[in-house]
Amino acid sequence: MRGRCLQDDEGKLSEVLGVSIDISAQKQADRELQNQREQLAHLSRVALLGEMTASVAHELNQPLTAISSNAAAARRFLERGIIDPNFLREVFRDMAADSQRAGEVIHGIRRMVRKEESVREILNLNTIVADTLRLVGADILMRDSAVTTEIDRSLPPVEAVLVQMQQVLLNLIMNALDAVASLPPPQRRIVISTRSIEGLAEVNVRDAGHGLPKDHPEKVFDRFFSTKGAGMGMGLTIVRSIIESHSGTIGAENAPGGGARFFFRIPAAPRARPEGRGA
Fold first, then answer.
1. Distance CA 21, CA 145 (A)
2. How far is the first Cα of the chain from the last one, in angstroms, to the nearest whole number?
3. What single-letter DSSP state applies at residue 8?
4. How confident is the model at residue 277 (pLDDT cuts 50, 70, 90)?
């Protein structure tokens, strides 16, 4: 309701004007719009929670499975009366490394939820390739596969989060092992290579499997898309988000002669870039 008083020439009240408008429909529409906004916000939180749950399950599955496998192997040896201190020492070291990696995944997610900055350091991707291969050495042997490396010794260092780079390589290597699993053992070949491009460090993981979808190979990076029957479709999505958070790029293509090639490139650490080339 709105009103207005009118005065005559002598300043006395002469007339009162008023208007009344029914805004019930507008208020109802505003309430419905607010309810829709709240529902959308709730659905967004549920969707984010679902993605985070899938991410946690995917990232923790490998280290926890490795811990379980090592513990089972040690128990079998002990039950047979075989006590090899060197073997047990190696098993316990691997279990400790896997448990630490699982803890780092949890800590990384907690930092993301709390919006904390992850600690970056100067890293050599050649070293990370070697360390990651050691972590998955048991898987490579169990799957009767062969992994070879072609290392570029001039690869520039990068500024990155160590555990995230290990996550990237671990996902790509495990996917490559899955890709060649259906082949005869002599054909289960994987090649990991590094090379230096102007101002960039590149890592390639190539397998001899059946390749990627021919229409749109980049679909493998979409959420919940998987070429594996029991796949969750989160691994490569996580990999892409990590690489992009490091100002890098990632791609996938069908390799000449069969199989797939995944590659990512990360800018060299600022002090490692040659002067006059965008340093």
1. 78
2. 67
3. -
4. very low
> How high is the pLDDT of residue 231?
45
* Residue 159 pLDDT > 70: yes
Joined together, the tokens standing for residue 200 give 């960039």
Cα distance between residue 67 and residue 73, in whole Å:
10
Task: Tell me which residue has tokens 């090639």.
Answer: 261
Q: Which amino acid type is present at position 34?
A: Q
Confidence (pLDDT) at 265: 95
* Structural domains counted in the chain: 2
In a domain, 144, yes or no: yes
Are 103 and 210 in the same domain?
A: no
Predicted TM-score (pTM) of the model is 0.58
Q: How far is CA 223 from the centre of its chain?
A: 11
Q: Say whether both 150 and 190 belong to one domain.
A: yes
Q: For 107, what's the count of Cα atoms within 13 Å in the CB-facing half-sphere?
A: 13
For the stretch 168-178, pLDDT in tens is: 898 899 889 98
- 16 part of a folded domain: no
